[in-house]
Amino acid sequence: MLTNEEKTRYARQIILPEIGKKGQEKLKASKVLIIGAGGLGSPSAMYLACAGVGTIGILDDDIISISNLQRQILHSSNRIGMKKVDSARQTIVGLNPNVSVETHDIKLSGESAENVIGMYDLVVDAVDNLETRYIVNDTCQELKKPLIEGGVMHFDGMILTVLPGKGPCFRCIFPQPPPKKDPREIGVLAAIPGIIGCMEAVEAIKVLLDIGDPLVGRLLLLDGLEMIWHEVKVSRDPNCISCSR
Fold first, then answer.
1. 138 CB contacts (<8 Å, ≥6 apart)?
2. Which of 25, 71, 74, 114 has the greatest number of CB atoms lying within 10 Å of its CB?
3. Integer angstrom CA distances of residue 40 from 73, 110, 150, 160, 192
4. What is the DSSP letter of 121?
5. Structural domain tally of the chain?
6. Domain assignment of residue 68, given as a range
7. What is d(CA 241, CA 179) in angstroms, rounded to the nearest whole number?
8. In the sheet where 100-104 sits, what is the strand order?
9. C-alpha separations of 159 from 19, 93, 203 in Å
10. Is residue 242 included in any domain, yes or no?
């Protein structure tokens, strides 16, 4: 049930026929895990909180450095040196005290992924390293958890929604990771993760409420310099080691 304060807070969403009071109550009952409290995770977490997702999990084992502040809007200058999960909790609760924030100050591994991801209804992948991205993808396939994938580099971004059994997973499209590169060496325009992270939040809400047409089997690519979106149709790989087992 929504409180009177929540009805007022979410009024501009509740009047949408695709959401309504029942949809808002469903968001309140939902649990979303955001893996990564950085450039992508910041806008995703903030807008999911503002939209009224009842429980948001934040997983990150890093601390805030000054170089993060160019794009990681969950954090601020006076929090340099603070754990990102603690900073994220402060920001999210400040935006919406109705949201329960669960923090996981760990580095995700194959051993821990199943336990953590299993606690949530949906996962937003907001990481900046491919090793973790494959762990998240494989675990979500194993547990049948919806996954919103986002990535950024330079002036570009990508987003894909993965619904186990209904479309391709991340491994179907990218079977093997490219050679490792330090993410600190990869430049990115500050606003690009903001755009992609916001879209991850939109996709998460659509999946949670079963509305609209999620990006299943459709890899959406942003060319920020030309401000052009490209949609690439993608299919399941019948030999995928993750989703075709």
1. 171, 242
2. 74
3. 9, 22, 7, 14, 9
4. S
5. 1
6. 4-233
7. 20
8. 100-104, 55-59, 31-35, 122-125, 147-153, 156-162, 218-223, 228-233
9. 23, 27, 9
10. no
Q: Would 240 be classed as within a structural domain? A: no
Residue 137, token pair as written in the block: 């993808």
CA 206 to CA 92: how far, in whole Å?
A: 21
Burial class from Cβ neighbours inside 10 Å (0-12, 13-18, 19+) for residue 12 reads: exposed
Using alpha carbons, select from 68, 135, 82 the residue that is nearest to residue 107.
135
Distance in angstroms (rounded) separating the CA atoms of residues 141 and 159: 17
Q: Which two tokens stand for residue 135?
A: 């762990």
pLDDT tens per residue, the chain (245 residues)? Answer: 999 999 999 999 999 999 999 999 999 999 999 999 999 999 999 999 999 999 999 999 999 999 999 999 999 999 999 999 999 999 999 999 999 999 999 999 888 999 999 999 999 999 988 889 999 999 999 999 999 999 999 999 999 999 998 999 999 998 877 666 655 567 999 999 999 999 999 999 999 999 999 999 999 999 999 999 999 999 998 888 888 76
The residue among 103, 199, 111, 100 whose CA lies nearest residue 151 is 199
Q: What is the CATH number of the domain that holds 45?
A: 3.40.50.720
Asked if 189 and 34 count as a contact pair (C-beta separation under 8 A), the reply is no
User: What is the model's pTM?
Assistant: 0.94
Which DSSP helix (H) or strand (E) runs through 78? none
Which helix H or strand E contains 122, and what residues bound it? strand 122-125
Structure-derived torsion over alpha carbons of residues 158, 163, 164, 166, reported in degrees to the nearest 10 = -110
C-alpha triplet 241, 150, 195: angle, nearest 5°: 170
- Domain assignment of residue 244, yes or no: no
